[in-house]
Request: fold
Amino acid sequence: MPSVRPCVLLRIAAGMVVVSLLVCPPLWSAQLAASPKVLTSLWHKRVAAQLTGLDLTWDGQTVAFTVAPVESAGEHRLYVFDSAGREVWNTARGLKILGVSLATDGQYTAIGLMDFSIALFAKHGELLWERKSVGLPYISPRGEIMVAFNNGMGGLATPLLEVFHRTGEKVWSFHRHGRVWRSVLSDQGDLLLSLWNGEALLIDRKQRVVWQQMFAKDAMALAISPEDAHYFAVGTGVLDPSIQLFERTGRLLWRRSLPLGVTEVSLAKQGAFLLSYGNTIHGQHVALYSRSGELQWMYHMKEPATEGLKAVVVPDESLIVAGIERHRRYYVQGFALSGELLWVAPVPEPIFDFRVSRDGRYIAAATDSALYFFDTQFTEGAKAQLQE
Reply:
C-alpha cells in the first residue's frame, strides 16, 4: 500500500512554481502576499477509475466521491471518507453514478445514476430507498428533502424537477417544458435554476415561482447568498457576457458586462460580495464586486484552463478559493477579500472539481483519477496512510 506522503520531488517542483508565480508581473490590483503558504495534501486517494462526482459536508469532516471504471468490466462505486482519510463505507452499482450529494452534517448521502434513478443512504451506508426520477439529486442542508433536476429527459409530460421527502415519498413536482441547465439549492430550500432555452426561475421554499426572466439562451452561472438567501446572481455567458445581481424580490440591483466571459458566480452572505469566475477562449479570470457593483479587483490569465474550474466565496470566513491552471500546472489557491494571495495548494493533475468547508479550513479537490484532501491549517508532520 503506497503512502500518501507526497514525494520530495513534487514538493520541490511545487515550490519552484510558486516562486515563479510571485516573480511574474503582478496581475492583481491588490498587492500579492510576499510569501504565501504552500499546502501539501493531508491525504489522497488514487483509484483505477474515473471520478464522476464530489461533495463535502459543511464542517469538512465527511467527503464523498463517485467513480466509473475505465473498462466496462469494472465497478461503478461510491466512496465516503472522513477528514483523516479513513474510509467510512462504500457501495457499488451496476450503472454509472453521475453525481453525489451530502447532507450538511453527513447524515445522508444521495446519488444519481445513468438511468435517472436516485438512491438515499444513511450515514453508515444503509440504503434507505431507491427509485426512478428525472435526474441528479441534491439534498437540502438539513437533509429533509431531496430535489432531482431534469438535466436530460425530454417530453411535455416529464417534470422539470421532483422533490422527495427523506422517507422516499414524492411530495412535489414542477412541470414546465424544457431541461435544467444549471441549478442552485439555497440554505433555506429555495430553488434557482436556468433552462436550456434561456429562461431562469426562482422557486421559493413554499414552492412558488416568485421570479422568472428570459435571457439570451445562456444563463449559465447562478448563485444565492448563503444563509439569508436575500440576494441571487445570474451570469450570462456566450452571446452577451454579463453578471447581474438581484434582490430576492426580483428587483435588479445592477448589471455589469464581462467581455472576458463568465462561467461561475458566487455570493457572500447578505450579498456583500459577488465573485465572478470565467474560463473561456479569453483565458481565466477572477473578479470581485461589492454589493453596490464596484469592482474590487480582478485576476486574469490569457490561457484557458483544461478543465471547467471555478471560484467560490467561503460563507463563514473572509476567504476566496479558486481553481487555477498556469502553464499546465494546477492549483487550488486561497485569497483574502482584498485580493491578497494567502496559500497555494498544488495538485499534480487537472482539477475537475473541488469543495470547501464552510469555514474554509478543508478543501477536497478531485482530478480524473484521484482525490486530494487539504487542511489549510496543516503543518508538516505525520500523514494519514490509505489503502489504495
